[in-house]
Design brief:
Helix content is 13%, strand content 32%. The chain has 416 residues and is an alpha+beta fold. Strands 3, 6, 7, 10, 11, 24 and 25 form a seven-stranded mixed β-sheet that branches. Helix 1 (24-31) packs antiparallel against helix 4.
Length: 416
């Protein structure tokens, strides 16, 4: 371990340790002398090292950032081997409010000793009747919704999501290989009530926090948790779009293609140079165009400068534009965040868990996208294949008028 620093769990901190206390910044400053992240890991207790992710352990900067986070949250305490004679004033621990609160609690405790008597303590050997109190509880939901996929493959960025309902929050899941049936994978939403739910595909974006959602089905009815089917009522098929030519079919190497479902453009997809497929957020272009031709803007939130009194990394925040709440999320570990698709020159940032007033922040005009102003830009994370519905709510789509089919064309000329 580091020759002059030791770490203890915060639960073991006592008044005698306060004279040896180090702030998170002081501890990280001493460890910054290490050049090899392996040397830093060897200096940490095994329990503390296990809390650091493998990604953070790849670099000294990432490792020290993770270490500082643990110390700021007062999960672990850094101590010197000898008293450091530093004061315990508020200014020294202003960036670690949880650690400061822990110190104040210990400082208020007065050590006292109870004198021992010279006689044996009196014990009560009378057995009392136990008093049982009935506490009513709500039974846990035991229903599920299962979506079947044709084939088995490695997971990627896309997933399935149940939208928020009146009584239940949104829920996300990924497809897993069915060990008993090797021809399929199953995506299971467990722990549901009997309330019907709406299903969609969720595709994360590469340059914004809001994902692309592709509607699949409405009012899906959950089944009992022990239910099993040879083929479930909702089935998706992963496909690779191909072009027909005189000699047969070939994979698309560039351009855009469209999936038409229920007589409507359901997906618009760009073929990336590496052969992957990136979605266009069609719902955004249909419904979220800025009024009056305003240019899009974005905001860069720097929590360290906005809130000097606290460390606000991973703190939830809300964004208000023209008095309306337009976004809610969580700051990154470095106390920053960036939000796109704004239209006003100023927005308000509010921290619902902190006792501070909303802060006004100026927005910045976003750079224009490539191509004409009317062009739609693919922002979805590139995927190795796309999912299309084969059966929804028990109805096979290939036997209906609204069956999904592919169309290739030029982006600006296809109506949404």
């Amino acid at each position: 371990m580091h020759p002059s620093i030791r770490f203890i769990n915060s639960a073991k901190l006592s008044r005698s340790d306060l004279a040896c206390l180090l702030t998170p910044e002081e501890c990280v400053q001493q460890f910054s002398r290490f050049r090899n992240p392996t040397d830093v890991v060897k200096s940490l207790p095994r329990e503390l090292a296990q809390r650091v992710s493998l990604t953070a352990k790849k670099s000294t900067a990432g490792l020290l950032s993770a270490l500082q986070k643990e110390l700021v949250q007062a999960n672990w305490i850094a101590l010197t081997n000898t008293p450091n004679h530093h004061s315990l004033d508020d200014a020294r621990f202003r960036n670690a409010p949880r650690l400061k609160s822990r110190i104040e609690t210990l400082a208020d405790i007065k050590e006292s000793r109870t004198p021992k008597a010279s006689y044996k303590p009196v014990t009560d050997d009378v057995t009392l009747v136990r008093n049982y109190a009935h506490v009513p509880y709500e039974p846990s939901p035991e229903h599920k919704i299962v979506v079947e996929f044709a084939g088995q493959w490695s997971s990627h960025a896309a997933c399935l999501m149940l939208l928020k309902s009146e009584d239940q929050a949104p829920k996300v899941t990924n497809a897993r290989s069915d060990m008993e049936n090797q021809h399929r994978s199953l995506a299971t939403f467990a722990g549901l009530s009997e309330e019907a739910r709406d299903l969609c595909i969720k595709v994360p974006c590469t340059d914004q926090p809001q994902p692309i959602t592709l509607p699949l089905a409405t009012a899906l009815t959950p089944v009992e948790k022990d239910a099993a089917m040879e083929e479930w009522d909702n089935v998706l098929i992963p496909v690779l779009p191909m072009l027909e030519s005189g000699g047969g079919s070939e994979l698309c190497s560039s351009g855009y293609f469209y999936v038409i479902w229920n007589n409507k453009v359901w997906r618009e997809v760009e073929v990336a140079p590496n052969g992957y497929f990136a979605d266009v957020d069609l719902e955004y272009y249909r419904n979220a165009e800025p009024e009056g031709g305003k240019a899009f803007r974005h905001v860069n939130i720097d929590g360290a400068n906005l809130v000097n009194e606290y460390y606000v990394g991973e703190e939830p925040f809300e964004l208000y534009q023209a008095g309306n709440k337009v976004y809610s999320g969580t700051l990154n570990v470095d106390q920053s965040a960036r939000v796109f698709r704004l239209t006003e020159e100023e927005v308000e940032v509010a921290f619902p868990t902190l006792d501070i007033d909303p802060i006004t922040v100026k927005t910045v005009k976003s750079p224009s996208k490539a191509g004409d102003g009317d062009d739609r830009v693919a922002q979805g994370t590139p995927l190795p294949h796309i999912w299309v519905p084969y059966k929804i709510n028990g109805e096979i789509q290939s036997e209906s008028e609204g069956s999904p089919h592919l169309f290739t064309g030029t982006l600006p000329h296809l109506s949404l």
